[in-house]
Every structure is written in structure tokens, then in C-alpha cells.
Design brief:
Largest sheet: 8 strands, mixed
GO molecular function: S-adenosylmethionine-dependent methyltransferase activity
Keywords: Methyltransferase, Transferase
CATH superfamily of the domain at 3-148 and 180-209 and 260-268: Vaccinia Virus protein VP39
Protein name: Methyltransferase domain-containing protein
CATH architecture of the domain at 3-148 and 180-209 and 260-268: 3-Layer(aba) Sandwich
Order of helices and strands: HHHHEHEHEEHEHHEHHHEE
Shape: globular
InterPro entries: Diverse_substrate_MTase, Methyltransf_11, SAM-dependent_MTases_sf
Number of helices: 12
Structural class: alpha/beta
Pfam family, one: Methyltransf_11
Distance between the termini: 33 Å
CATH class of the domain at 3-148 and 180-209 and 260-268: Alpha Beta
Length: about 270
């Protein structure tokens, strides 16, 4: 991350750290258990969780590996992660301050690197992927979970230009709620980026994530004006964006919508020596 983007992330997520510690989406989301199943971690592995937030991903991997470092740039988040490790008795889970674009670890340090629901904040995805590859041992495993933008599969019948525009409007929607949002690409962008960087994709899944609107905006301390704009977009915004987000009211009249989560498990590949 750049210094400017780091500062924006800290300003948004520092005050919200305690909320993320108790967030159902982050603490108990369906992708959390599933990514552990797909990774199939080993008891001998040394693991790193990048942009750990309140530490939920590091904590769920901790019982399955030798050690795991929960890293983040936000001190308040690292404190929450440390509290979580203590509460669960995870003596093999530690914390470290680290930027996703400049990981402060030696080459080939880890058997596993994971990153869940954070990469859309990173200003340079290529640099992040390069850093992941650098700190992974040969044959090491990288697991990514993140929100993704729409593609042809999610918007059947839409033209290429319509999809490109919806990628733009979706990211603008996210950035309106959270100014530290960077860019959530469509799934194939991640696949192409990882293959080009020397990773082999060994698992690729996508799942829907239902979000309740009110907690979603409360976590980011959105102003009434921003909340009104976000509701307007969900109610009467661009048609393809609404088709992608699927806004709806539950039986109590509470607003909900759907995001898409991509789950990728990849292995670092190296030329035969």
C-alpha cells in the first residue's frame, strides 16, 4: 500500500476495529470455514494472514498449522486479533504490523499465505501478489477470499460494455460507503493475475454473501447523506448494478443485498531446476 492509502485505511478501520471483531460476516461468514477446507492445511505449516483485520481468518487456521502470524497495518485491528487469540487459547497465533505491498518477512518464509475480505483495499494488486509469492516457500500455498465485481456469468445477456460499466458502478458504490475501498475486479482478473505471477490455481469457487444494509453502513460510520445515497442506488440505481446486488426487503422491512465472494487456492510454481 502507499502511505496515503495506508492512512485512509487506518482512519476508517481503526475506529471500527471492535465492530469488525463482532461482525457476523467477518467472524462467521460461510467462506471462512470453506477456505480452510479448500486449503487443507498441514500441522507443520508456518502461515501468514495478510490484512487480518480482527484476526478471524488467522484464528480459524491456527488449530491446523504450526504457527500463524496475523498481520495488518492498523494497530487497533491487531489488538483485536491478539484479544481473539487469547480468548481462544491460540498460543501459536501472533501479530505483526505489515503492509500488503511490502511484507516485512524474508523470502520463502511461509508454507501458507492467506488473505480474506481485504484485497479490495490494496492500491496495487500486482505488487501484493508479487509479495505473496516472494514470502512463500517453493510449492507454498496462497488462499484468497474477496468480494468481486460482476462478470458475464452474473449478468447473463449483458454486453461487454454493460459489464465494464457495472464493474465501475459497483466499485463506486463500495467506495461511497468506504473511501478506503480500492478496486474489486471480476473473478477472471484475479485468475489471470495469479497465473501470470507464477501460481497454479487448485481451487476456484464463488458464493453469494447476503448483507444486511444497516450493519454494513454502521461499521463504516457512514453519514446520513451517504446512507441516503447508498439506499437510492439500491432502490433506483443502474439496472445492471441492481441485478448484481439483488436489493430486497426482509419480512421486517429491513434492507438486504447480495455480494459475490471469490475463493481461490493457488500454489506457487517454479521452473524445474
Amino acid at each position: 500500500m502507499t502511505k496515503d492509502s495506508d492512512a485512509v485505511v487506518r482512519s476508517k478501520f481503526g475506529p471500527a476495529a471492535a465492530d469488525y471483531a463482532t461482525s457476523e460476516v467477518h467472524a462467521k461468514g460461510e467462506s471462512l470455514a470453506r477456505i480452510v477446507e479448500l486449503v487443507a492445511p498441514q500441522k507443520t505449516w508456518v502461515a501468514l494472514d495478510v490484512a487480518t483485520g480482527a484476526g478471524h481468518t488467522a484464528a480459524v487456521f491456527a488449530p491446523h498449522v504450526a504457527t500463524v502470524i496475523a498481520s495488518d497495518i492498523t494497530d487497533e485491528m491487531l489488538k483485536e486479533a491478539a484479544k481473539l487469540a487469547t480468548a481462544r487459547g491460540l498460543a501459536n497465533m501472533s501479530t505483526a504490523t505489515a503492509s500488503a505491498s511490502a511484507l516485512p518477512f524474508p523470502n520463502e518464509s511461509f508454507d501458507l499465505v492467506c488473505c480474506r475480505l481485504a484485497a479490495h483495499h490494496f492500491p496495487d494488486l500486482e505488487k501484493f501478489v508479487a509479495e505473496v509469492r516472494r514470502v512463500l516457500k517453493k510449492g507454498g500455498r496462497f488462499a484468497l477470499v474477496d468480494n468481486v465485481a460482476p462478470d458475464q456469468e452474473r449478468l447473463p445477456g449483458a454486453s461487454v460494455s454493460d459489464i465494464d460499466e457495472t464493474i465501475r458502478t459497483y466499485n463506486a458504490f463500495e467506495k461511497l460507503r468506504d473511501p478506503s475501498h480500492g478496486f474489486a475486479p471480476p473473478p477472471e482478473h484475479w485468475c489471470d493475475l495469479l497465473r501470470a505471477a507464477g501460481f497454479e490455481i487448485v481451487a476456484h469457487e464463488q458464493m453469494e454473501k447476503e448483507l444486511a444494509f444497516e450493519p454494513w453502513v454502521e461499521r463504516m460510520r457512514c453519514t446520513p447523506a451517504v446512507i441516503a445515497d447508498l439506499k437510492r442506488i439500491l432502490d433506483s440505481g443502474p439496472g445492471h448494478l441492481r441485478s448484481f446486488l439483488k436489493p430486497r426487503l426482509d419480512e421486517n422491512g429491513a434492507l438486504h443485498f447480495t455480494l459475490q465472494e471469490l475463493l481461490l487456492v493457488t500454489d506457487r510454481t517454479d521452473p524445474t531446476e
